[in-house]
Amino acid sequence: MRQFGKALSTASALVLSFALLAGCGPRKEAEAPTKGELNLYTARHYDADLELYKAFTKATGIKVNRLEMGPDQLIERMKAEGDASPADVILTSDAGALWRAEQAGLFQPIQSAVLNEKIPAGLRDPQNEWFGFSRRARVIAYDKAKVKPEEVATYEALAEPRFKGKVCVRSSDNVYNLSLMSALIERWGQDKALAWAKGVVANMARPPQGGDIEQIKAIGAGVCDVALTNTYYYLRLVASADAGDKAVVEKVTLAFPNLDGHGTHVNISGGGVARYAPHKDAAVKFLEFLSTDEAQEIFAGANHEYPAVPSVKPPALVAQYSNFTADPMPVTVYGERQAEAQAVFDKAGWR
Q1: pLDDT in tens, 335-346
Q2: Would you list the domain boundaries of the chain?
């Protein structure tokens, strides 16, 4: 269900492909009667999101037709589809990716008293084109036997000589790293951010590779002592019943570094209504549903993210890793400074 196959050239063919996808598989007796449909383009690659779609359909009777792909693929596909695009809602991880979609003209502004009330201003677009529905912190994973907590209390620590040959990271064009660098530039300025990036490059245990879980597991395997990761990836390992994952968690834990005295860098996952949404009312209902207590608890419980709605408390596992100060920087900064961030990485030699 995750891929349509070859790109389709007409609006009727695009809609047909959604209809075919939506019809796959037997209908369960517990499903709500269909009261409309919603075409969702998502760059969130989490199986846990299926719980969100099921809950939305149960609450509204609106069927969700899902197309999943990477954020850059999603943007290019929608640009090619133009006003023939069947997309109603766009979801993606990271404010930087949302900003890219916004700059490509893929969203439309909406007016929703529900979203304006529930989603803090710093977690949404000022023009109401997109909204954050979950939060994640970019933190430092470290080997408990080799590193003291006070040695990883700041992001600057990763560039210090203490960690020469002991840092694992993923590539510089990863949007999570781009957003972190954007925040560093915002707080420090380009010169200090560049010096930091050069220091991290000098400290790398290996060339950048893999995703966040691979960085954590590399610490467990003794390849490095410290690494950057998003919190929910580590919490997946904590929640896992796999013996190998449990062994990694026994060895590795998280530090929540302070960014220039303001707290830990926090990003979002979110979405908005597509510019040419054929089912706009259903799209707005879907976004508003994502701000409900039920949906916020699914984000936190099923994928170990932090709720975006302040009144919603995280479940026990996530709550264990919630005792930190979040940098209040508006997430729009991460997109606005993205080009600068990539330029700094390139100049530092961070591949």
Answers
A1: 999 999 999 999
A2: 11-135+267-319, 136-264+325-348
DSSP string, 219-272: HHTTS-SEEEEEHHHHHHHHH---HHHHHHHHHEEEE--BSTTS-B-EEEEEEE
Neighbouring-strand partners of residue 328: none
Query: What's the rounded Cα separation, in Å, for the pair 119 and 110?
Result: 14
DSSP assignments along 265-321, one per residue = -EEEEEEEEBTT-TTHHHHHHHHHHHTSHHHHHHHHHHH-PEESSTTSPPPHHHHTT
The residues facing 134 across adjacent strands are 269, 307
Residues of the chain with pLDDT under 70: 1-34
Q: CATH for 136-264+325-348?
A: 3.40.190.10
Rounded CA gap, 74 and 301, in Å?
A: 27
Q: Tens of pLDDT along 11-26?
A: 444 443 444 344 344 3
Fold agreement between 11-135+267-319 and 136-264+325-348? yes
Q: Strand runs (DSSP E) across the chain, as ranges?
A: 37-42, 63-68, 89-93, 131-143, 167-168, 226-230, 252-255, 266-273, 306-307
Mean pLDDT (the chain) is 91
Given 3.40.190.10, 2.30.30.40, 3.20.20.370, 3.20.20.80, which CATH number is that of 11-135+267-319? 3.40.190.10
Q: Is the separation of the CB atoms in 298 and 304 below 8 Å?
A: no
Angstrom distance (rounded) from CA 110 to CA 254: 38
Q: What is the DSSP letter of 110?
A: -
Between the alpha carbon of residue 214 and those of residues 179, 209, 219, 224, the distances in Å are: 20, 8, 9, 11
Quote the tokens at residue 75. 């943007």
Residue 64: predicted pLDDT = 97
| Cα–Cα dist 202/223, whole Å | 16
Question: Residue 52, exposed/middle/buried by CB under 10 A (0-12, 13-18, 19+)?
Answer: buried
CB 252 within 8 A of CB 216: yes
